[in-house]
Fold this sequence. Notes:
The protein has about 325 residues and is mostly helical. About 65% of the residues lie in helices and about 0% in strands. A two-stranded antiparallel ribbon has the order 1-2. The radius of gyration is 28 Å and the shape is elongated. About 30% of the residues are buried.
Amino acid sequence: MELYKDFDAVFAFNPDYTYEQTTIRDILRNRQDLGGHLFIDRLLDLLHIKQGKSISSKLFPPRTNGDLRTLFTKIASAPETIPSHHIQSLLFYIFLDCSPDPALAYTFADNVYLPSRYRIYIEGLWHMDALAFEKALSYLCKPGLVPTFPEEILDALVQHAPRTGWQLPLVYWHVVAPVLTTTHALETIFKVYCNVGVTDAFFFARTQAEHMHHHLFEQLVAFVLELRAGDARATKCVELVNLPMSPQESGWFEGFLSGKGKTLMGAKDTLMIRRIGIGKFDDALSGIRGVSGREMNGLKWDLLKGGVERGLGPRYSR
């Protein structure tokens, strides 16, 4: 029997080992924070390792020594069609959880000759499950690794970005350059760009096919107008209306803020400012009639309307 298939040999340091209760609580809390799925759950599911017909989360985390032995046996007795280094990688992950001394996990990996790229990636996923995202990226972004669950990793980083910062998902995106296969994943990375900068998001949307370009462009406009009122929103609104839009994009902008986006806070004001900025004065003045008497960030529309009319002089047709 191979070493890694013998529980007592692998856990020779303590064959009666049981997960600490604090470790179990941390794992369960982190699973909830990650939307109900740990990356170890995904690995177990990928290799079809389950407790009967139950989902993998019934196996992990093991609450007792008996549960740990069951999990170990399920992994070690996986079908021969599963490469041995995949099985060993799962056991290495469990060792990272169990080891009273972290060096024991690496000793196990050395004893079974687990390739370094698998060690690195598993450590990265283990840190993802621990919500230690910056530490996780120090492993997951190393060169030469084949990304596994890239969309799920990106999603987890973005979900926690309001707390950990938007730079982490952006680093993962630029360094790993994962291939995104779903609309959700594309919208996820676009959310990152929106939070980093309006102009960055604008040019990223342009790299997509026309239908997706249109969709993301409208998302960008909605993102800016849905921000909480304040200086940051005002700054992003100014950046938005000054974007170097093509005639097609200008049409999308007009259509969105006159159509399904018209109920967004400041939609009409934003549209008027854009029209004035690009010299569409007649259209702007027509729209200003609908906001007469209102102010936006201290700007009185009636005063602006009067100034534009005087500037146009006889060129303005009422």
